[in-house]
């Protein structure tokens, strides 16, 4: 029995050892062989081309160009002539030593970037001489080449990944580039592609001399996917041209799809400024400018009071709640009267007036009475305000909208709790009367106003706005952008409001911005502008706002234009909107007089008024982000 047990144990041990030897030499032999030869093998990554970006009509907006990074692998560095290398790289000694120290801290065996993003012309004189410096080598990569000089805030930019990102995501290595804003950031995974790698045998100088194992372990790179964006390249360029020497935001949407046709923020910059060796210097100039703020996307991030365009929402809510009819006339005595006071003034026009004329003439008194009736229909002011909030937010206001761009703000549509938490005394509808005309506590962004306008153009629904049309030639298949979002206002109530917006162009506040052959529906707005100067809240020149869609039936474009310090709505914003609508629908401009006015008038002198004070606040809300009731609100 003992002999059998001994024989059994010897057999088991022998089979185990044979199995281990077979596994190490046959199954894992190649792997361990590769590991044992790593000291003699140099691995060079093949960076893939980043995906191209095309506009909705197939015009190329962003391509690629060949560039080179000068890399260093610390363990391969031998003694070298420091001054000669500094002269070759056009870098001072202190900077070179600092970059080498950073590389050693990062990894002793992996390559680190010493000089990034050299063009082919800059790299040519280094190509042969770099071989004299063991441990230093060039790695080819693909940099962006912009085929347009506009749309920087939408396209975004790429830059070298941070050490934190490398630690979190093993797909990135030192020197890799990734999207940092706009489309480049939002669609980084689609655009970046997949690296390839090639292994080479080193000579005694550490130079790659021949392929290792005939390329058996090499992999090829996979280029990034091409994107087709919803932008109209020509319309985008024209919109930026019209915003020259102005500040603000423009968003145009195709109502029938939610596709963003134009998204402009001003001031703007050429996207090529953030590429090449001067990118760091240009980046400081762009993103550290606390006055003009060209790095802020005003179309998505700037929060403004919407002004009179918001009146059409109160009209729709009033009709839905049954507190007004299309024919009832309300009186205006140069303003809204309450308790012998006029918290809301108004300009001269005929009185009394019904809904159509109220919209066309932008009567403050008319809409103050409509708003008050809406709020007072509730059992309490809080109930009335909550019901009003429910209707207004159904248009996408007070929401990020869920669009496919990485930045944005929600704005503010107050509810009953908002006011009850801020007033120690009992408040009433007149307390919040400024909401009737889009002032007070209501805050929106340009893209929200454009989306609201698209909902009106569609007579009661909208598609979430989005910027991507196709990925690698395949149309996007995202239910978030193909499902109709219905408002709480029934479709039958939209037609009379649309008629009122048509009257704005025919007889009302935008009659001088008409476009021959196109029936446009719009609404002008003049928004009070408060900034801080020397620590004091000061009122400056009003903002110019305009919303519109066209044609009236089967609309092709819905647009919102916001021009800071642009006086009244028809002076700048309405002209810009009309020209962009004509450009989109006709493909040409006939109102050369409007175009000449916009191209020859600058608002820079208005902005100079703000330079002596604190940096301009794009977000007008104060007190930790919450707006305080203004002087034009009435507390009974």
TrEMBL record:
Organism domain of life: Bacteria
UniProt keyword Cell inner membrane, yes or no: yes
Gene3D superfamilies linked: DD-peptidase/beta-lactamase superfamily, Penicillin-binding protein 2a (Domain 2), Penicillin-binding protein 2a, domain 3
Penicillin-binding protein dimerisation domain ranges (all copies): 48-211
Localisation per UniProt entry: Cell membrane; Membrane
Keyword annotations: Carboxypeptidase, Cell inner membrane, Cell membrane, Cell shape, Cell wall biogenesis/degradation, Hydrolase, Membrane, Peptidoglycan synthesis, Protease, Transmembrane, Transmembrane helix
Stored InterPro entries: Beta-lactam/transpept (IPR050515), Beta-lactam/transpept-like (IPR012338), PBP_dimer (IPR005311), PBP_dimer_sf (IPR036138), PCN-bd_Tpept (IPR001460), Penicillin-binding_protein_2 (IPR017790)
GO molecular function, one term: serine-type D-Ala-D-Ala carboxypeptidase activity
Designated name of the protein: Penicillin-binding protein 2
Penicillin-binding protein transpeptidase domain: residues covered: 248-579
The UniProt record lists the keyword Cell division: no
The protein's Enzyme Commission number: 3.4.16.4
Membrane association type: Single-pass membrane protein
Gene it is expressed from: mrdA
Predominant localisation class: membrane
A family per Pfam: PBP_dimer
């Amino acid at each position: 029995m003992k002999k059998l047990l001994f024989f059994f144990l010897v057999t088991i041990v022998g089979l185990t050892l044979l199995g281990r030897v077979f596994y190490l030499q046959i199954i894992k032999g190649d792997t361990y062989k590769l590991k044992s030869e790593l000291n003699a093998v140099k691995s060079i990554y093949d960076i893939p081309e980043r995906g191209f970006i095309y506009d909705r009509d197939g015009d190329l907006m962003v391509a690629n160009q060949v560039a080179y990074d000068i890399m260093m692998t610390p363990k391969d560095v031998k003694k070298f002539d420091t001054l000669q290398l500094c002269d070759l790289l056009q870098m001072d000694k202190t900077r070179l030593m600092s970059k080498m120290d950073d590389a050693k801290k990062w990894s002793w065996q992996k390559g680190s970037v010493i000089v990034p993003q050299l063009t082919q012309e800059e790299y040519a004189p280094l190509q042969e001489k770099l071989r004299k410096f063991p441990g230093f080598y060039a790695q080819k990569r693909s940099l962006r080449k912009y085929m347009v000089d506009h749309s920087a805030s939408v396209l975004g930019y790429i830059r070298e990944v941070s050490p934190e990102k490398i630690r979190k995501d093993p797909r990135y290595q030192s020197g890799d580039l990734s999207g940092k804003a706009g489309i480049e950031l939002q669609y980084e995974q689609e655009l970046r592609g997949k690296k390839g790698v090639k292994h080479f045998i080193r000579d005694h100088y550490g130079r790659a001399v021949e392929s290792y194992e005939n390329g058996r372990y090499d992999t090829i790179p996979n280029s990034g996917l091409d994107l087709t964006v919803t932008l109209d390249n020509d319309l985008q360029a024209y919109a930026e041209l019209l915003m020259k020497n102005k500040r603000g935001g423009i968003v145009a949407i195709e109502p029938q799809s939610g596709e963003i046709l134009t998204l402009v923020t001003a001031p703007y910059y050429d996207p090529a400024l953030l590429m090449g060796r001067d990118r760091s210097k240009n980046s400081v100039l762009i993103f550290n400018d606390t006055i003009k703020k060209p790095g802020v996307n005003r179309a998505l991030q700037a929060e403004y009071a919407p002004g009179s365009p918001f009146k059409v929402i109160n009209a729709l809510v009033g009709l839905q709640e049954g507190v007004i009819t299309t024919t009832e006339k309300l009186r205006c005595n140069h303003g809204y009267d309450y308790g012998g006071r006029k918290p809301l003034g108004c300009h001269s026009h005929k009185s009394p007036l019904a809904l159509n004329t109220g919209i066309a003439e932008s009567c403050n008194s008319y809409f103050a009475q409509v708003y008050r009736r809406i709020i007072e229909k509730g059992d309490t002011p809080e109930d009335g305000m909550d019901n009003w909030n429910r209707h207004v937010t159904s248009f996408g206001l007070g929401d990020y909208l869920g669009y496919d761009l990485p930045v944005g703000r929600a704005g503010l549509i107050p509810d009953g709790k908002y006011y009850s938490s801020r007033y120690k005394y009992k408040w009433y509808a007149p307390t919040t009367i400024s909401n009737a005309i889009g002032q007070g506590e209501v805050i929106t962004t340009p893209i929200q106003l454009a989306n609201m306008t698209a909902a009106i153009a569609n007579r009661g629904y909208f598609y979430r706005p989005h910027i991507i049309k196709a990925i690698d030639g395949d149309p996007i298949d995202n239910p978030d952008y193909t499902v109709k979002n219905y408002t709480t206002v029934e479709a039958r109530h939209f037609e009379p409001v649309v008629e009122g917006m048509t009257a704005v162009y025919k007889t009302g506040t935008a009659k001088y911005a008409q476009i021959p052959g196109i029936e446009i529906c719009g609404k002008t707005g003049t928004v009070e502008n408060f900034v801080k100067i020397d620590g004091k809240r000061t009122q400056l020149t009003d903002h110019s706002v305009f919303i519109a869609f066209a044609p009236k039936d089967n609309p092709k474009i819905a647009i919102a234009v916001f021009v800071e310090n642009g006086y009244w709505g028809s002076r700048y914003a309405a002209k810009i909107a009309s020209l962009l609508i004509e450009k989109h629908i006709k493909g040409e401009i006939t109102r050369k007089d409007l175009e000449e006015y916009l191209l020859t008038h600058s608002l820079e002198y208005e902005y100079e008024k703000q330079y002596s004070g604190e940096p301009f606040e794009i977000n007008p809300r104060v007190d930790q982000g919450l707006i305080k009731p203004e002087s034009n609100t009435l507390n009974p």
